[in-house]
Amino acid sequence: MTACPPARRTFNFWQLFPLFWLMFLAYPILGFFDHARPPGEWLLFWGVLAGFLAVYAQVFFFRRAGTRWALAGWAYSLLAYAVLFPAVGGGVTAFLIYGGSIIGYQARVSLALWLAVFNVMVMALPFYNGSYALEDLAWLGPNMVFTLVAAYANHASYRRTVADQRLAQVQLEKEKLAADAERERIARDLHDILGHTLSVIVLKSELASRLTERDPKRAAAEIREVERISREALQEVRSAVRGYQGSGLSAELARAKVALDAAGVKLNVTTPLTELPAQTEASAAMLLREAVTNIVRHARAREVWISIAPVGGGHRLTVRDDGVGGLAPEGSGLTGMRERLRAIGGTLERRGEGGTTLTAQFPAAQGPGAGELVRA
């Protein structure tokens, strides 16, 4: 693993803002305590409330954003209202407001507003069975409006969050591409250094060879000059190589995009690029190269999805396509990568549903011989 200190998390006051909205739970709680309750109602009320808090935390604190979690939170809030209304009464309307705010935390504004309108209609249902009187509109009306406002506002907040994440990813990719461009520059410099220096060494070596018998002293001087030039060139090469060694996963992704674009395949990188241990990055780059080569040659795919994320203490690289590869026999490239991963304590899994999915698990720490295996 790369020996670097962990990133220091900075405290952001707005991360605690969702705690402020939990104050609306005071309404169902006060409604529950307005008279004595049997044990069954106690168990039901606190069980439903605990479940709601778990869903709320997943959406707003653990940032389980997206349509699936938003729909789950909305549905649970609606269920909590339906289950608790007969026992607690109008105080549980707070759950419908929460449902409106949660459904907004996904990408589709139409879905957010239509389901928020549905919650508003559910709020009005007790008027039809006589549970509410007309004067209840004094408190119910603002709740209806607030449900719609919360849905739209949280949708806007979600879109802003996604935009910020994409901007950060683009910035990270730009930085990595700039680093790759610098490496390419060093490679060109290295070529220039070696081309000139090796030409001088060849000329002086030939001259020393011709002078060996006629003028041994001058021949020895030429050999010493060859030695000096060689040492200087070695230092220059080492300096250049230190910046050039290992183009890394970002450069391999750039090459993959060029190859896939040429083949008419859309590339989707679904996770931000992160710093990886050197051996992990080298192995991941080799696997990505092999996977993209197979996709271009055999898969007849239209889209490819690539992600790499920390899991456990190690990292997981996933390459998925929508082609026709399925579970066809593996070639020597994938077989070799499977052996390399096994040698460093990793695994490679291949699935063939709806295309081909390669999932490589890289360990947290790799053995001392892993680098030689990767370079083999």
Automatic annotation (TrEMBL):
Q: Which UniProt keywords apply?
A: Kinase, Membrane, Transferase, Transmembrane, Transmembrane helix, Two-component regulatory system
Lyase listed as a keyword = no
Give the GO molecular function terms.
phosphorelay sensor kinase activity; protein dimerization activity
Which enzyme type, at the first EC level?
A: transferase
What residue intervals traverse the membrane?
Answer: 12-30, 42-62, 74-99, 111-131
What is one cellular component GO term in this UniProt entry?
Answer: membrane
CDD domains referenced in this protein's UniProt entry, alphabetically: HATPase_UhpB-NarQ-NarX-like
Q: Which Pfam families match?
A: HATPase_c (PF02518), HisKA_3 (PF07730)
Which domain of life does the protein's organism represent?
Bacteria
| Histidine kinase/HSP90-like ATPase domain residues | 279-366
EC number(s) given by UniProt = 2.7.13.3
What is the official name of this protein in its record? Sensor histidine kinase
